[in-house]
Amino acid sequence: MTQWLAKLFVVLSLVVSCEALATVESVPPEQKWAVAAGVNALWNISFYQPSKSEACLFFYNNLVIQGGYSPHTYIGDDGTYCRWTNFFDHGGVYAQQGIYWSEYACPVPKVNPDVPYIYRPATNTCEREAQKIYTLALTPKEATIEPGKQFLFTAIVVDQDLKLPSESIPVNIEVKVDPKSGGHDHGDSSRPKGSVSPTSGNNVFGVEFKSTDVSGTHTITAKCDQCVNQTATAVVTVKVDGLIPIPSSAFYALEEPDPDRPSQTKHIGETDKHSENHFLKPNAVQELLEIAMKYHTQQEFQILNYATNKRVPPLPLYVNDASLEWGGKFDLSGTWTGSHAEHKRGASVDLRANDTFGAIPAAAFEDFEVVLRRVLTNNTNIPNYRKFLRECTADPNPETHPKAPQHKRLSKNYCASQLDGTLDSNRHYHLRLKE
User: Fold this and answer.
1) Choice among 40-44, 221-225, 305-309 with the minimum mean pLDDT
2) Which residues have C-beta within 8 Å of that of residue 249, sequence separation ≥ 6?
3) What is the pTM of this model?
């Protein structure tokens, strides 16, 4: 019985000892260095610095130079001494050296810095009563959503035992957007960004991110002053999924000469606001290719080559704006508002139909629209009569010529010409393709 009690006492003692140890927080001390002019010259010892070299330079700048010594030259730390030379008026040159001194100091705690560590020389450690160490997390760390959609994140604070705090630990939430992400080269501080709700909470709470219709990269940051990591972030990619670059083809053109850069080309429709404007869904690419192939190969679109007196295929279709790299709002003017409303999802594309190079000739409009109706028939989510538009700028003089709305469907009386007889410079076909 006595032996059993003795063993129980030992076990309980170990448990108590472990619990006692667990209540003490211990970290290694930091060794700091200072320089004195000699063993007995501690009256002019420099302030302690993080390293020997820093201590040597500090001593030289503050005690040698400012102390009124004769002209001197700094040599520096040689690993054992801090060295410099003095030059005297009588021509003597004396090598001088300072002796390093060191002491141990405790670092400032990252958590609850008002409770300092105490240095224990016997164990060469810094100790204090164990503090609650809180860690902040924002989960998940990344998400991808479509423009105009929402996503729910979770902000959570746990202690070193992965338990929720027993006290209220405040957390604040903010969101920023990369101004030039999502295919917008004109990013600025006025760019729309998603919102978060709520913007603050305690311990654990949901954070709803709501995106705008502008695609791009957002960073949500949670902040907690009482947490060891203080911040946690999550990245939200707002984009239309599944967009691909329009592949090159002999039946349509994606590039044209750049008037501002001789011998170089640019994307058709490219601007300084949006340099990458040719992205579509795969199904839309297939429809565009089918339309372009029929336009290039069918006899009714052939043109007469006067040099040979033979009919030849027309130029490839000139493809203007489709969608941006990640879809979403295509703000043509770069003001984050209006214009190009249907170019969001990679299922719309504009084809040149004005009086510039590569445009569909006005004489071919009627036959071309027959092709459009046939190819786009399978696009069942849009009524046949709305599968393409002629788009142009409204005529400024309705008395002389019928005033055309910017979107006027299949009317030969609109968008046909300017008052001087030339085609509208903005005229194009807007195709609604299969998504």
Assistant:
1) 40-44
2) 289, 292, 316
3) 0.69
